[in-house]
Amino acid sequence: MDQGQYYSALRHRLLTPSPRYTEVVPVNPELQGRAFAPTAPYLVGREKVREFSRAVFSTSPLNLDPAAARAAGYADVVAPPTFAVVVQESTLAQLLAEPDGGIDFTRVVHGDQRFTYTRPIVAGDELTATLAVTSIKSLGGHSMVTAESTIVDAEGAHVVTAISTLVVRGDE
Amino acid sequence: MSVAVGDVVAEKTYTLTRDSLVRYAGASGDFNAIHYRDDVATSVGLAGVLAHGMLTMGIAVQPVVEWLGGDSGKVLDYQVRFTRPVLVDPLEGATVTVVAKVGVVDDAGARIDLTVTYNGETVLGKAQARVAL
User: What residues 82-121 of chain A have any CB closer than 8 A to a CB of chain B?
Assistant: First the structure.
């Protein structure tokens, strides 16, 4: 699967009629507690932050103008609160690519999303994300997989934790 | 900043067009074709092209950031549940309204509760931003 493609597919598959009589592999409970390798460092570019800011309808000079951001005490433009998803994405790609994970991409829906910040992301940051599966639950024939991606800077200091709950539809 | 529980601190309406979706696709790297191709969207059983859930989440917090004087760094925690899709008409687009209300005030700041509606229905559940004041 390509990086960056899962999100929407996920959420909207819920609305997709699933083929009947398909053999469904259940989500592997051993994913919980499994150690995943940190992702390759992601260098936050100023123009990427500005591009993302415009795409989410930001009007804030701190997101768009380096001089305004510096005047407010930041090293460079500040990323909007949901920008962390761009860094988180590669960890979810890791999860879906686990050969024994049993998470069928075509049956996954994005259930909920959360970002918990220690400090905002700023252009120039070099960020690394590490995935952990913190919970796998069954609910009405579906599996709810909670994936937590801890994102740290080049010094190893915590920046943000991104948490996604993915709903993996069971057989029906 | 003086706030009280129940205060509506921001209210804003956004019009999402197909252009908005293409722009977000490029900015985020989410190139799923159901966000710009009707044929692909309908082939998987959708009524048409949908907005990225993460785009709706990203926009919904903007009125709060504006209220915070543009300092997105004051958003300490932000969560949503994706409950309904936003269908984006090729001509009319989709109108999404955000109402931001103070849910909790404490030593850490405030919890802002967001009501995000499209076509008369909420599209995000438990949409909450923890902010420093």
Answer: 82, 85-86, 89, 109-117, 119-120
* Residues A33-64: tens digit of each pLDDT: 888 999 999 999 999 999 999 999 999 999 99
- Give the minimum alpha-carbon distance from A46 to chain B in angstroms, rounded to a whole number: 12
Q: Which of residues 122-161 of A touch B (CB under 8 A)?
A: none
Residue labelled with tokens 């909790």: B104
**Residue B114 CB: number of other CB atoms within 10 A?**
23
CATH number of this structure's domain B8-17+52-131 = 3.10.129.10
What residue ranges define each of the domains in chain A, with the CATH number in brackets?
26-45+83-168 (3.10.129.10)
Average pLDDT of every residue of chain A: 87
Ranges of residues in chain B with a pLDDT under 50 are none
Q: Are B130 and B78 in contact (CB under 8 A)?
A: yes
Rg (CA), chain B: 16
Taking residue B102's Cβ as centre, other Cβ atoms within 10 Å add up to: 17
pLDDT > 60? residue A13: no
Q: Which two tokens stand for residue B77?
A: 């925690």
